[in-house]
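ok so for the tutorial part 2 we go from a plain amino acid sequence to predicted structure tokens. step 1 is just haveing the sequence, like this:
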Amino acid sequence: MPSASSSPQNRLRIVLVDDHPMVRERLAEVINREPDLHVCGEAEDRNDALKVIGATAPHLAIVDLSLKNSHGLELIKDLRVMHPDVRVLVVSMQEESLYAERVIRAGAQGYITKQEATRNIMEAIRRVLGGEVYLSTQLARRIAATLIGRQRANNNAAIGSLADRELQVFELAGLGLGTRQIADKLRLDAKTIETYKARIKEKLKLRDASELLQQAIAWAHTDKKD
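step 2 — the prediction. this is what the tokens look like for a chain of 226 residues:
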């Protein structure tokens, strides 16, 4: 007999937004094998997704960029305003170098290609549900390349205002470490790391974790002596 903790109402809820039924079916099968996760709804376009998400209040939405009669980017922007507590992981066939930065700027917390998803989808889901951001190493480098040089002097001055520990957290985030990994490396607890991140966002005037990640990646991959 399954335990009470494995019943759907006690699991973390996930909504799948993809215009291919077979993709949704395959993802749902993989996710529902996990004892603490449950696919609570599905949608094939933006309007249906907003209805399903509004009705089910999921913890995570997995969104494709190519949707029926709409584009995933618009849905991500809607969710950022209408359902800011819902985290978003993009799983798409689209070339990551073209869309990754746009996705993060729109408010998503992760991006994984469908080719990579066959191997790493659960890691991506766990990272995003855990409050972290999921990006491939190659993707992080590409985003950094586009960000380096933007308002660099102003950014350096602002970053210089960070306390020593805040700067350590900022740089480690830019190197791709999640909250738990940073906590382990600095021998602190995860709650303390989140406090440091909140201070960093305030000092650098960043709106959310997505903007913090963008700035941290640029900082970690550029020459800081300039």
